[in-house]
Design brief:
The structure holds 2 protein chains of 2 kinds. Chain A is 55% helix and 19% strand. Chain A is an alpha+beta fold. In chain A, a hairpin with a 2-residue loop joins strand 7 and strand 8. The chains are: A alpha+beta, B alpha/beta.
């Protein structure tokens, strides 16, 4: 009889309950979408942050090992000491890692900053950089060079141009394989293979610094930096503070915003349910008076209404969550350009929240338990 | 043998209004009592107190050995479920429940439901063909017969009827009164509030009220209605 009564209650007041369930579905939809976004936002944003480039730098300790005249950096490290340490940690959080040797060379009579690096690592390290041409072209007679757009304009270089570079009494000719548009100081530099730069500078095996792009929260990045520092005692391993701090602050702000919105929506949904239930309670005063006159205890009568509201909350939660996951999928496509994968733990959480909100909003129905049958039958 | 209902010095005060003032009477099991009096004389208040719907300000009202005036909320709830059956002037059926479900509602709050028994109760009051109808689809007389079936379903000791024919036309009134006569013949104890002297004459005794006081108790003659 309980379920039969419950069904009749739901059917009997379907007009009013439709308003409540609409509020619950809307609330559940937005909340589940936001919660899904919140759970996935860290992964998505850290992926987005990696577009910003390197966030960790390994450089020689202040008492640097090697000094060289004309080098852009004053101290150098041995690549065989540093790069194996990165490989040994084999951390999947490392998206890209590139060693750099900066030297100031001459292109004709014009001095230019040349960065020797692993060209194939740069697209991973700096995915936002735009290049006309290729980082790693098919081998030709001359080794490849990627030229910053300002340098290319100054030296009248285009793809396939020959680029002679000289350092002290050594010289080498490069083929322009790409023209870089980085939107920064890199537009004034020339990127060549590390071995070529080392050969030109007469510094075989030497590097000035290593830049790494590490995905994850600021804590993950700091932990990785600490482990790397422990295996490289003669080097400084430092997160690029501006980048990692900005990432952390942005993540925290987005999380705070999402939590605030979820709370606000919960309150608004509860208020909407409350308004509907207040009207419903007025309609049901006589029914409650009758039920009590027939020997219905307060707990049994109110329990019936609470079960009804619980069913509404669960139904609103289920429908809303399904719609919300679809909404978060769409939001992911629009905001991040990639779908946000549904997190199934959202389902029970949102449904539980909606049941709680519905029960909270059902306060007027709970108060019906205090109805005095004699008062109702007197028509008061 | 103790009377089924024993009322002693029963009073009820609503603020400054005295609805009942020291009422005393008793009812034997199987009796049909008609309660009469002008509006505001305390008839409904008496029925409500005897049925555990309202509480007394003073005095006692013992029904089947239970002093209703001394029961707390949960005690009154059980009392209403087990000892009394109500028939109201306004029928008070739940509009979204069918006739049989309205009867089963009383079973549900009493103990467990038995649809077969509820259907049989409706058949006994002549509604075998209206069992699945909603109250809105029934005439006033039919609705009141559903209310009677509901009042009887838990085999109460006492049937309390508050102007059960007050909202019925003549034909339906006759049907419902015939039902009460049958119940009385079966041995049910009935306390019925009525304004209609012709109905009151069918009862074993008439108790008359004025201004909250019991003014007359009259033994009826066994007269068949014209």
């Amino acid at each position: 009889m309980f379920w039969r009564l419950l069904w009749k209650l739901l059917r009997g007041s379907r007009g009013r309950l439709a308003v409540a369930i609409l509020a619950l579905v809307s609330g559940a939809m937005v909340i589940s979408a936001l919660l899904n976004l919140e759970l996935d936002v860290e992964r998505k944003l850290t992926q987005e942050f990696r577009m910003l480039g390197a966030n960790l730098v390994i450089s020689p300790a202040q008492d640097g090992q090697t000094q060289m005249p004309g080098a852009a950096s004053s101290a150098l490290m041995n690549e065989k000491d540093v790069l194996p340490a990165i490989q040994n940690l084999n951390d999947p959080a490392v998206v890209g890692a590139a060693p750099f040797l900066y030297i100031v060379e001459r292109a004709g009579k014009i001095p230019v900053v040349v960065a020797g690096t692993k060209l194939e690592e740069l697209p991973k390290l700096e995915p936002a950089w735009k290049i006309e041409g290729q980082w790693t072209p098919a081998p030709v007679d001359q080794p490849p060079a990627v030229v910053g757009r300002n340098v290319a304009r100054q030296l009248h270089l285009s793809l396939g141009s020959q680029l002679p570079l000289a350092y002290l009494d050594r010289g080498s000719e490069f083929n322009v394989a790409g023209i870089l548009d980085a939107g920064g100081a890199e537009d004034n530099q020339i990127f060549v293979d590390l071995a070529q730069a080392q050969k030109l500078a007469g510094l075989p095996g030497q590097i000035g610094l290593v830049q790494l792009s590490v995905t994850g929260t600021p804590k993950i990045i700091a932990d990785y930096a600490a482990r790397l520092a422990a295996s490289l005692p003669s080097c400084d391993v430092r997160p690029i503070r501006q980048v990692t701090q900005a990432e952390g602050e942005l993540l925290n702000r987005i999380r705070l915003l999402i939590v605030a919105m979820v709370v606000l929506i919960l309150v608004l949904t509860a208020l909407c349910v409350l308004a509907t239930m207040a009207a419903l309670a007025m309609e049901r005063r006589e029914d409650v008076g009758l039920m009590k006159a027939l020997g219905g205890s307060i707990s049994r009568v109110v329990g019936l209404f609470m079960a009804e509201v619980g069913v509404l909350g669960a139904a609103g939660g289920i429908i809303g969550t399904i719609l919300g996951l679809a909404l978060s999928h769409w939001m992911g496509q629009r905001v991040f350009g990639a779908a946000i994968s549904p997190r199934w733990e959202i389902f029970p959480l949102t449904i539980a929240l909606m049941i709680a909100v519905a029960l909270a909003g059902a306060l007027p129905l709970r108060l019906l338990g205090k109805v005095k049958p004699a008062v109702i039958f007197r028509g008061e | 043998m103790a009377p089924l209902v024993q009322v002693e010095g029963l009073s009820k005060q609503y603020g400054s209004v005295r609805a009942l003032a020291g009422v005393s009477f008793s009812v034997e099991a199987g009796e049909w009592i008609a309660i009469m009096g002008p509006s505001g004389s305390g008839k409904t208040t008496l029925i409500n107190i005897l049925g555990g719907l309202d509480t007394a300000s003073a005095g006692q009202a013992v029904v089947d050995g239970t002093d209703v005036a001394r029961l707390n909320e949960s005690g009154l709830t059980r009392f209403r479920a087990e000892k009394v059956g109500f028939v109201f002037q306004q029928f008070h059926l739940v509009p979204y429940l069918t006739a049989v479900e309205n009867v089963m509602l009383a079973q549900y709050f009493h103990s467990t439901t038995d649809e077969k028994e509820a259907r049989e109760a409706l058949e006994r009051v002549g509604l075998g063909d209206r069992i699945e109808h909603l109250p809105g689809e029934l005439s006033g007389g039919e609705q009141q017969r559903v209310a009677v079936a509901r009042a009887l379903i838990n085999h109460p000791k006492l049937i309390l009827a508050d102007e059960p024919t007050g909202n019925l036309d003549e034909a339906n009134e006759a049907t419902v009164i015939q039902l009460f006569r049958e119940l009385h013949a079966q041995g049910h104890t009935i306390l019925m509030v009525t304004h209609d002297p012709s109905i009151a004459r069918l009862a074993d005794r008439r108790i008359e009220f004025a201004h909250g006081r019991l003014t007359h108790i009259t033994q009826s003659l066994s007269v068949e209605p014209a």
